[in-house]
Structures are given as structure tokens and as C-alpha cells.
């Protein structure tokens, strides 16, 4: 850049910006309203929010990793313990949903393997076919023929009857 630059082309900014002069000595009422709003509404809400955020940062809660404790099975509940019956029923429903998802995941893996392998699906997807057969058989043995309104008690009775039939067949 040359030493002798043109001062008219590149003007130097002023050293100080001028301050707007007040035309009146009466204070602005908007300033009072803003200050009052800040102290009455904004400051308490901000304080409470920051307090809650500090507490939440200490105890991180991940809602998608909810873990339930295992409760006693329906066969372990005492007679007339309705709270135990309810908890066992809720546990059975959760277990059934988990088993349904397991079957669905294995089925999706099988479909993906068939799609990927094409005509060679029977030899290359044999493990997936076998796994799907095992999983569906286990699901059918446990939850089959219960219907939509199946519950923990009917599932337990079904398993008991199946075990009795297996004992009779073994003798």
C-alpha cells in the first residue's frame, strides 16, 4: 500500500461519537416501567429457572433408559395381595411387549437378509431362518392362543397345563 494515500477517499472515523442532548429534564417513564417489569416479573422467573436448571444438571434423567425393577411373578404372590397381582400383571405386559419387539427385530433381520441375498437366500440366510423359527416358537409357546385380552393369570395357567401334558407324555 502506498505511503501517500488519499485522505479524502479514506476518511478517518471520528474519535468520539456525539452524545444526544436531552431536550427536557423530565425522566422518561418508559425507563421506570422497564425497571419495574424487570424487578417484578423477569428477575424472579429467571432466578427460579436458573435454580431448576442447576438442580437438573446435577441429576441427569434420561427418560428413554427407564428401568423397572423386577417384581415377583404371579405364582409368587400371596393370596389376596392385590398390589402384587397388579405389579405382576404390569411386569407380564412389559415382558410381552419386549418379546414382541424381539420377534419383530428378528423378522426384520430376516427380511433384510432375503432382500440383500436375493436368489441365494436359502443358503446364505439359514442362520436367520433358524433363529426366526426358534424365536417365533418360543413366543407362540408362551403367548399363543391368549388372544388380545390375555393376561398374566391365563398365561400362567397355559404354561402349567403345558408342563402337565409334557409330564404325562414323558411317563
Characterization of the model:
- The protein is an all-alpha fold and 171 residues long.
- Among the domains are: 36 residues; 68 residues, no CATH class.
- The model has no long low-confidence stretch (mean pLDDT 87).
- The N and C termini lie far apart (106 Å).
- α2 runs antiparallel to α4.
- It is elongated and about 110 Å long.
- The longest helix has 36 residues.
- It is 63% helix and 0% strand.
- Belongs to the complex I NDUFB10 subunit family.
- This is NADH dehydrogenase [ubiquinone] 1 beta subcomplex subunit 10.
- Keywords: Electron transport, Membrane, Mitochondrion, Mitochondrion inner membrane, Respiratory chain, Transport.
- It is a peripheral membrane protein.
- One of its GO terms (cellular component) is mitochondrial inner membrane.
Give a concise summary.
By secondary structure, this protein is mainly α. Among the domains are: 28-63; 103-170, no CATH class.
Describe the SSE topology:
Blueprint: H1 29-58, H2 82-117, H3 121-124, H4 126-143, H5 152-170
Helix pairs in contact: 2-4
What tags apply to this protein structure?
171 residues, mainly alpha, 5 helices, 63% helix, 0% strand, elongated
